Amino acid sequence: MTDEPVQIIARGPRSVAESAASAMDGDPALEAVTYSIIEEDETRGLWRIDAFPTSEAEADDLRRHLSTFDDLRLTVERLADADWLEMALSGLPPVRAGRFFVYGMHDRGRTPVNAVNLRIEAGAAFGTGHHGTTVGCLLAYDALLKARRFPRVLDVGTGTGVLAIAAARTGSRVIVGTDIDPVSVRIARENARINHAAGRFVRANGLAHPAVRAGAPYDLVFANILARPLVWLASDIRGALKPGGAAVLSGLLRSQARFVLAAYLSRGFRLERRLGRDAWATLVLRR
User: Fold this and answer.
1) Topology of domain 87-286, per CATH?
2) Average pLDDT estimate for 63-89
3) 204 FRET partner, CA 20 to 30 A, in 100, 110, 114, 153?
4) CATH architecture of 6-78
5) Domain map (residue ranges) of the chain
6) Can you give the pTM of this predicted structure?
7) Of 114, 3, 16, 112, which is closest to residue 53 (Cα–Cα)?
């Protein structure tokens, strides 16, 4: 860990920021970096990448990578010696995505009566419901539910468990969530308990875990991960789905959608819907 945690900020035009983020996803030295990309100033066309390195070496790699993009302006800010993650989460407003209302404990008195209310405590896991990819998946799922139900659901890269829990709360009977991070698995289990949602959450890299195999074939697979893992898992996700089953894919930039989509179309999927939020894309596919 760095002696003093820092936040690296890169500002520039949208096309440059998206290119930098996409290249970051493809750099093995940066594949574990936590970052976000958002539109900071619509009038000026200014976009912003916020990255949070966890070591001196990672910070150096981030600065080296981002400095290769001439139109990005870099700044480094030292973070106060405090639980800044908890402080940030405590200030996040609740999120409405279709029928779903995602909130934290600090908003437990504000839940609407006409929503599927999901209390999600993030801790160190990804998926508070605020990120464009998570919102995209929830909106896609809300639209799918208007036509049919999904008795068996797999959530690859479950993070906080929000998508698996949303499925459990809307009638799915078999729910399996996986993540490569044991902390995320623990947090997902805790969130499932808080929301009285039945589901099995396991640590797994890929779809070969016995719990994943036992639940197959699935009616729906969520995979909110990254573009390259989505491509690598295309055949496995197809094999885990029933014929006619749906896949909701996210974790990819809009600029990466064509790359991911090609991998799935070549394996017999068809595109049903594409959603965009900020710089992020969500794909809804049918096997």
Assistant:
1) Rossmann fold (3.40.50)
2) 73
3) 100
4) 2-Layer Sandwich (3.30)
5) 6-78, 87-286
6) 0.71
7) 3
